[in-house]
Amino acid sequence: MGTTGGEQWDTVIVGAGQAGCAAAYDLVLRGMRVLLVERADFPRVKPCAGGVTIKALNALRFSIAPVVRCVVRDMALSTDGGTVQHIAGPAPMLVTTVRAELDAFCLDRAVERGAVFSNRGTDRIVAVDQSPSQAVLRFASGASEAARFVIAADGANSTIRRLTGLKKVQRAFALEGHMPMPGANRRQLAFDFGAVQGGYGWIFPKGDHLNIGLYTQDEDVNLSRDALHSYARTATGSGLLDGVVGHPLGIDGHGAASSVGRVLFAGDAAGTCERLLGEGIHNAIKSGQAAAAAILSAHGCPRRAASVLRQEQAPVARDVAACARGAQTFYGSAAARRTALAFKPVTSAFRSGFAAGMTFRDIAATAALYSFYAVNPVRSITEHEQARAV
User: Fold this and answer.
1) pLDDT greater than 50 at residue 2
2) Sign (positive/negative) of CA torsion 219, 220, 222, 227?
3) Torsions phi, psi of 122, nearest 5?
4) In degrees, to the nearest 5, what angle opens at C-alpha 45 toward C-alphas 44 and 47?
5) Are the CB atoms for 213 and 228 separated by under 8 Å?
6) Cα torsion for 361, 268, 266, 190, to the nearest 10°?
7) C-alpha of 36 from chain center
8) How far apart are alpha carbons 343 and 361 in whole angstroms?
């Protein structure tokens, strides 16, 4: 039986990031008793560049206008020290947030709807037991939580994957820091491809500071603080970064197991972060919603849940696979990168596609039609800009 509240839960979700909160929100809306288990109080530090794409904003069930820092319409792209390509247009491509603020906001929305949040601190999960009727999480303290289903949304180094006997998903890596810039009015993103082997450097505006980082999809590359400070100096003229943190990203999950019995995986724990740009928020949200849909359709049957989960996560898996193929070409050759960024129809197609809320796979398949992509108002952006205008 669940020790929080004294009754068995319909679902226990491990991890209260974007995947976990998206799953919780959908489940409680359908009357499910949901426990969200975390190791940290919120707001907690979450290493992330904090870019939320239009497709991610469209996937969310609610507006995140209160935690939007900047609306981005302009982008500067360069590769291997070459000419900077400026890409701009009237339609937003994404918004920037501080990830700790975003996750706390989304957690609050799930709790408001009825989810129960439990901060377990250092009381780690040490076992996952399953029976024909339930799954039980056992903690080092001796406490336990039982539920009809468990959703593991506990990141690229998922404890639940290990405890259920599954291999880790493939990982990419990012290292980031913050550069205070009071009163900064920068609204342009910068991507410097080739700044690190198999990846890029980035600069994201956050209103009162810049988020500066390095990303690589090559597991053999060691990202160092010295390299990050050097990139910051080259890109901005200053190497003064605060809060430098590194983190793994769970990628290439299109070939990994997405469930074991009554345990379903979502977000980085399912490898839903895409390899090309390391963008994971959209896929985390969609995979969390997929896990919720699987549980709601399962009527208590784990086989049915697994089948529905595969169906619901299929669009994410297809896009993750397409991004992996794209990354192999793009990062495998400096000439390929230069050609892609210098060819205006390519950059225009992707700019238009991002503004339209499309996935990489869908943009790549229809790039010749980019001038016909439909761009619609996005509630989070509209509300944010209206609030700023007051």
Assistant:
1) no
2) negative
3) -85, 0
4) 140
5) yes
6) -50
7) 18
8) 19
With 90 as the cut, is the pLDDT of residue 7 above it? Answer: no
Nearest alpha carbon to residue 200 among 83, 278, 98, 127: 278
Q: What is the pTM of this model?
A: 0.96
Gap between the Cα atoms of 316 and 19, Å rounded: 13
Contact indicator for 260, 278 with CB cutoff of 8 Å: no
Q: Where are the beta strands (DSSP E) in 39-194?
A: 51-53, 70-72, 74-79, 85-88, 94-96, 116-119, 125-130, 135-139, 144-152, 170-180, 188-193
Mean pLDDT of the chain: 93
In whole angstroms, what is the distance from residue 278 CA to residue 293 CA? 25
Cα–Cα distance, 329 to 200 (Å, whole number): 15
Query: For residue 188, what pLDDT is reported?
Result: 79
Alpha-carbon distance of 97 to 50, in angstroms, equals 5
**SS3 of residue 200 by DSSP:** strand
Cα–Cα distance for residue pair 192/205, rounded to 1 Å: 15
pLDDT value for 96: 96
Find, among 16, 14, 39, 19, the residue nearest to 250 by Cα: 19
Q: 263-265 and 94-96: which strand pairing?
A: unpaired
d(C-alpha 360, C-alpha 271), whole Å: 17
Q: How far is C-alpha 157 from the geometric centre of its chain's CA atoms?
A: 15
Q: Which residue is it, tokens 């595969």?
A: 310
State the DSSP H helix or E strand holding residue 229, giving kind and residue range, or none if neither. Answer: helix 225-236
Q: Judging by DSSP bridges, how do beta strands 209-216 and 170-180 pair with one another? A: antiparallel
CA distance 31 to 264: 19
Domains of the chain: 1-50+98-169+252-332 (3.50.50.60)
Cα-based angle 113, 115, 118 (whole degrees, multiple of 5): 145
